[in-house]
Automatic annotation (TrEMBL):
Signal peptide: none annotated. Residues 7-131, 152-269 form the VOC domain. Keywords: Dioxygenase, Oxidoreductase. CDD domains: PcpA_C_like, PcpA_N_like. Gene3D superfamilies: 2,3-Dihydroxybiphenyl 1,2-Dioxygenase, domain 1. This is Ring-cleaving dioxygenase mhqO. GO terms for molecular function: dioxygenase activity. It comes from the Bacteria. InterPro entries: Extradiol_RC_dioxygenase, Glyas_Bleomycin-R_OHBP_Dase, Glyas_Fos-R_dOase_dom, VOC_core. The keyword Nuclease does not apply. It holds the Pfam family Glyoxalase.
Amino acid sequence: MKQQTSGIHHITAFVTHPQKNVDFYAGFLGLRLVKKTINFDAPDVYHLYFGNEAGSPGTAMTFFPWPEARLGKVGGGQVGYTTFVVPMGALSFWEERLRKFKMSYYRIQRFGETYLQFQDKDGLQLEIVEREEGPASKWSFGGVPADKAIKGFGGAILYSLQPEKTMHVLENLMGMERVAEEEGLVRFRAVGDLGNVIDINAAPMPRGQEGAGTVHHIAWRAKDDQDHRQWQENVGRYGLHPTDIVDRQYFNAVYFRENGGILFEIATDPPGFALDEPMESLGEKLMLPEWYEPYRTRIEQGLLPFEVRVLEEDRA
């Protein structure tokens, strides 16, 4: 039986200032900061995770904030748009919220759905759509009540250098179903109920440039360690040269670059973000893996402080 991912596990992007990042994703979007840690490969840089109340797979948007980062250029070989999903009837709330914060946005139609497209403070391209499927978030913060809150990912738009090859990977390796085509986009659907709708530009896109305001990688879900090992074997058999399994503390990861230039990861659902701190205080303390604990003081001194705060527009 062919393996099938249930959809997106997380999406990771480059941004600049951590306070600006937290103000946008917690303050404006109302997501919960579920983990404050470091980039395990570059410990002088934060790795911040935002999601629903638990940062469940399918909800976690993650960032490497680096104030000195150069600005990137969104293009081929990247995720073009990250799609968030909200409950049915909540889109008007988000449209009003965008206006309240004086943010530019576009209201577009795609495959019979209405999307609000906008950018974060670093130029990362985002959109919001409303759908019935997927569990509701239980988290509320600032001006975002739980009944209007982002549930998690709706999916993404992929920009590929070789779309036919990327589509072949989505369908024949990742186990997604090709379901529709419209105005230069092809839609694929995974079997889960969050992060399950992937659109891809059918025409090749000019190559993007990595930097702030661009996505570093998109991660797909594996059920457990056994499923994960099988994914690694299947990626290798497909000829895409997966990495070794990497311990990312809150999940295990395998990386590979598909032939359209996009960096894919496959990540395990367990163990999750409550591994090293209580659910009620997720994201409040800088958490380090044990191999970095001896260097905590030095690491903390090198990181810019920030706070999760209610924004002025929501205090008025």
